[in-house]
Amino acid sequence: MEWEIGVASKHELARKLRQRINQGEFSETGKLPTEDQLIEQYQVSRYCVRGAIAVLAAAGEVFPVRGSGVFVREDRVGNYMPIGSSNGIVADFPDRKVSSFVQELALIRADKQLAKRMRCAEGDQVWRVVRLRSVNDQPISYETAWYLKEYVPYLNEEIARGSLYAYMRDDLGLTFGFDDKVIHMGWLTAEAARLLELNEGDPAICIEDDAFLSNGKLFNASRNLYHYKNAKFYSMASMR
Amino acid sequence: MEWEIGVASKHELARKLRQRINQGEFSETGKLPTEDQLIEQYQVSRYCVRGAIAVLAAAGEVFPVRGSGVFVREDRVGNYMPIGSSNGIVADFPDRKVSSFVQELALIRADKQLAKRMRCAEGDQVWRVVRLRSVNDQPISYETAWYLKEYVPYLNEEIARGSLYAYMRDDLGLTFGFDDKVIHMGWLTAEAARLLELNEGDPAICIEDDAFLSNGKLFNASRNLYHYKNAKFYSMASMR
DNA sequence: TAGTGGTCTAGACCACAAA
DNA sequence: TTGTGGTCTAGACCACTAT
């Protein structure tokens, strides 16, 4: 059976299991094979199997019940954006048309306030990128983002029109670590309102995001003002 | 040294390490002891040490960097509520005065719409609880919550004034599994506005929460309308 | 090159769910 | 009672960081 071949790591195994889940292979029972069966099927250790299941569980795709099995969770409804782990809006919506309209792209020097936010020295060089982001031609958010030039030596409008995260990961070789978000209520500026096709002063869910590399250094901060109708979010978490 | 004694599980070890972090023991280096040192200090296996660190990392308290060490993350600022894992607002703010004013507490039968939300049959008994929640005497949210009577056989106003989650966990012996949240923009009803001391029609961050037991069964759903000034949220996530 | 976290194998026992 | 996931020990090697 084809899924027996060539599994070498928990991430690879997680990917294969995700595939089988999405193909509906387990929809009858609603459960994954048992750990012992997966050990047998993929010829890996229990540690590896448990690691793969932990990856899927952290992503909210399955939930293990002791003594009973690993259950596939209900489908997440379609139109929501994940809060928490994200590798960029483009990766979040693989089968949707994601567009970014670059309003501004400039290399600036951090003033006192920005330096504090970026954990850098005053005067350090920072890319400032303002974009309107839309999904399936619906405006989603007005984003103001800053990137430390130390880690992103080059940037242009064409790159900013696409996925900056994919650029940083694939072309610059940066490895992402974790990010902090703060969510609160904000209000649209005139320019944000114009681009989102709303009115100045309209309320917006505002997310401040600080993103760190795997070495713990901040490389990117951003402020997103989300369209109050078009943007919804979901979060799936363990309570244990 | 006192921290060497009596560690039997990753959760226990995580608790002890958290204590040492909060006491500032590692503030000089910003790093935890190495895995090998922790193995030595607590006389446990590497697996156990790694498990404890994973618990802290999942909670956003530390971040491990391969080849370098396990770093303590910056303090989370004070006044924010966690999105993602939560065991109730009371547990989230251990050193604040959390009050709940019960507006309504009734045992009802699920209509078609509620039955769908609660994953139960039409006509099943459900507790409906409406509360104004406040932290340090500031109104935070207007909450409408439903609890399946199947899992919560008894409820009264006194219990609802306190922590329903503590009641369910400690007195009813329920074990929580995971929860799904949907975050979007909402608008205050007249009653919600009155209680939150805002105006009808004011915007509010709205969080719909479905909470499941560790056996995968939904036991509680709720809708929270948050005060747009008093309520802010944070989320810390891994990007790996 | 040495130190440190990441992954993996192999094997054991425990806690909980379901029959 | 049996099956299944949760935790733990012991030991090994790999990948990345820092020097």
From TrEMBL, chains A, B:
Entry keyword annotation includes Ribosomal protein: no
Record flagged with keyword Transferase: no
Taxonomy, superkingdom: Bacteria
Gene3D superfamilies registered for this protein in UniProt: Chorismate lyase-like (3.40.1410.10), Winged helix-like DNA-binding domain superfamily/Winged helix DNA-binding domain (1.10.10.10)
Organism (species): Bifidobacterium callimiconis
Domain HTH gntR-type: residue ranges: 7-75
Cross-referenced InterPro entries: Bact_HTH_transcr_reg, Chorismate_lyase_/UTRA_dom_sf, Tscrpt_reg_HTH_GntR, UTRA, WH-like_DNA-bd_sf, WH_DNA-bd_sf
Keywords: DNA-binding, Transcription, Transcription regulation
Top-level taxonomy: Bacteria, Bacillati, Actinomycetota, Actinomycetes, Bifidobacteriales
PROSITE patterns referenced in this protein's UniProt entry, alphabetically: HTH_GNTR (PS50949)
Protein name from the UniProt record: GntR family transcriptional regulator
Biological processes, Gene Ontology terms: negative regulation of DNA-templated transcription
A single GO molecular function term of this UniProt record: DNA-binding transcription factor activity
SMART domains: HTH_GNTR, UTRA
One matching Pfam family: GntR
